[in-house]
Design a protein that fits this description.
Oligomer: single chain
Mean pLDDT: 84
Helix content: 55-70%
Number of helices: 34
Shape: globular
Low-confidence stretches: 1-75
Amino acid sequence: MMRATIAASSSSLKVGYGSGSCTTRLRLKLKDMLPCLVQSSSVVVFFNNYLALFHSRTSESTESRNTQQHRLVKITNVEDALDVFDEMLQRRPLPSVVHFNQILTQLAKLKHYSTVISLNNKMGVSGICPDVYTLSIIVNCFCHLHQMGFGLSVLGNFFKLGFEPNITTYTTLINGFILQNRVAEAATLFKKMLDSGNCKPNVVTFGTLVKGLCAKGNNTAAIQLLKKMEEGACKPNIVIYNTIIDSLCKDTLVADAQNLFSEMTSKGVAPNVRTYNSLIHGVCKLGNWKEATRLLNEMVSKHIFPNVCTFNVLVDTFCKEGMVQEARSVVEMMIQRDIEPSTITYSSLMDGYCLRGEMDEAKKVFEVMLSKGCMVDAHSYNILINGCCKLKRMDDARMLFLEMSHRGIVPNMVTYNTLIDGFCKMGRIQDAHNLLSQMQALGQLPNVRTYNILLDGLSKNQQFPKAVELLEEMEGKKLDFDIVTYNILIQGLCRAEKVEYAWDLFQSLSLKGIQPDVRSYNIMISGFCNGGLTCEAENLLREMEERGRSPDDCTYNTIIRGFFNNNDTSRAVRLIQEMVERGFCADASTVELIVNLLSKDEVNPALLAFIKCPR
DNA sequence: TTAGGGTTAG
């Protein structure tokens, strides 16, 4: 991966790509190129709709309307929306169902799905008859609440009221299946629509299924669906292309994404800021700053201007590369362009500082975030908590955990897992267990990761009876766990010099229907070597090949070090030859070992030249 | 004059 060296100033970023003597210098004159782009939030849309709604009341006096407007502008939450709803219910004659639908729509956009359901019930009690729009909104809310059964049962209401579900209704249901990871059922309903006479899928229906396929990692099927559209089923729009381009970028298939991008533009579909954001994110993840710069320049030349997401990608990438100062320069640019840094911007910056162990700086960013009235969420706290845990400042981590609760922010799975891991790494197993009980008591069910963290903590602290008990608890819960869990315990047993138990567990894997991966073999081989069982280690090396698991660099380095440490130099040398023939290299610690042996005159100096890595 | 699909931080 190419690593960029960047010198930043507030007006430009000088991006250099060090590659031997050949260094290109590029200037990113972002500041001069990017005009501001202010996005309206859904809350603003919400206000505007209500202002329009009340403007339409011709019977009201100007004075009362001004009072209403003044009051409505203050609507920022569900409570205020509920007040408006109740007020509407008391008006006579009752406003039309259309106006109620508008409220339901806005609440659904704010993700208050269960509120929508209860308001709909209230409407029914008040004698307001739902229309096709109302019922579709309700289907959508049930889908988002993962209550597909109720969503499907609304179809009965359609027929009862003499309505026919339409393309929107079916598309909503397809989306519901996808939200529940039931892509096959989504595809079946889609097919039924294709075969139907009057409910053929439209571009939104296709887009919904494309999203589902991409979410499943099935880019090929998504592209096939796109081809079907291009063949005439329905003209694909930018949303369809963006979904697939984004999915390809997330799978690091950036070249494929760029090919699709070219295909799209050649067909006359113009890219937008989201297309560029996905591509820039894709190339940034690969460390390709040069391409990111080219894309930024290209989008601006097309009058497509970077938005807060574009900047967030840049801030995050700089932070992940440890270049927090450069990230700060990007934030400066955002502010100069009147683009307000978001929760994500500040969270990335905090993460950047935490990765460098600079907790005080991270906390300062957090203070800025609070002082600017920027929303703080569980993720913001998780970053700080993780930073404290990594520095073994568990008391600070616990304080932050309490502070977030006081602010009314509900700790999520990541919060608990981070803290449990922190306690385990400090050997404070009881504290970790207490947190596990606390999360369960609060209705947060531990996931495989939680158990793996605890298992790792128990085995590193040599509490094997408890570790085995936990493993059995996991097996009993039928959690969707895999080889990672067993590798943790096998490694723990090996480190505790309980190689026989580790080997028993390793051998029991096939009975459990779980296949060991390369890491399992490496752990076991290392365990054998450390226990002086070099023959067993070599046997396992051969066995893994027979079972179709190719050894990697780590396998060879582990076993070679094992032979050297067990004074079996000739077998070590033979394996070095085998490793080099297979194109693997000696790692730093193997080289160090050989150099030490050379200094003691215990190996042939020719060996050093032999192990030199061609890379 | 209202319903359904796409982007960013673990």
